[in-house]
Amino acid sequence: MSRPKIPRKSTNVDMTAMCDVAFLLLSFFILTTKPKPSEAVHIDPPNSVSAKQAPEKDLVMISLNKDGKVYISTGDGADDKIQKQEIIKSVNAAKGLGLTDQEIALLTKAPFIGSPLAQLKVQAKMDPSQMSSETLQGIPCQDTAHNEMVDWIRGVKDAYAGQHTPNILLKGDNFAKFPVFKNIVGALKKNDLLKFQMVTNPEAAPNGSLLYKAIQSGKLNAAE
To answer: Given 29, 100, 114, 216, which residue has the most CB atoms within 10 angstroms?
Structure first.
């Protein structure tokens, strides 16, 4: 006598709970994610075919906008903030600016330094959200006689004395004037810091070029 066949039923999985969890996670990330703030100093650097990533630690960024205004900043890490404070302290002591500990702390929290030495106390009193290329006149660097970047680069060198050499990045606008760029490089040379990297917008190598053929053949990596 044959055994009776038991009808098979399809498996039914209730996904309601899973959908609830997914929406909860999505809501959590939307509410806790901080959008990247807009740049206080807008700079449109030139393009290049290099895709090499800029370092994120131990960096000193020198920014030059199209109006010839110069700004200096460091990374956002805790160690970078400490180094930034040491740079400000060094410049304060060397130039006798009379900055108080509180003013140095406020300047350390600022997104960048963008004032003449004589106006640093004024910048320290500003709210960081108000600091921009419109409200700050930049570090004087238009001529060799009044090139305050020499003092700031000396402060960088003093802050990193006995340690590894900082990663100096120069981010210049595509329409910036060459004399100011030359004075920045001159400030680096006067302090024997001869190595820096240019920040550019990466783009692909032109089709048919020697660089394009080298990348396609595997002889050269696109990031080199």
So the answer is: 114
Structure tokens at 11: 């498996």
Per-residue model confidence (pLDDT) at position 218: 65
- pLDDT per residue over 187-215, tens digit each? 999 999 988 988 888 776 667 666 666 66
Beta bridge partner(s), residue 201: 47
The residues, ordered by sequence, that sit 6+ positions from 198 with a Cβ below 8 Å of its Cβ are 45, 48, 169, 170, 171, 172
User: What pLDDT digit, counting tens, does each position of 73-116 carry?
Assistant: 998 888 889 999 999 999 999 999 999 999 999 999 999 999 99
Give yes or no for a contact between 31 and 24, defined as CB atoms under 8 angstroms apart.
Answer: no
SS3 120: helix
CA 216 to chain centre: 31
Closest by Cα among 146, 149, 148, 123 to 136: 123
DSSP percent split of the chain into helix, strand, coil, nearest 5: 40, 10, 50
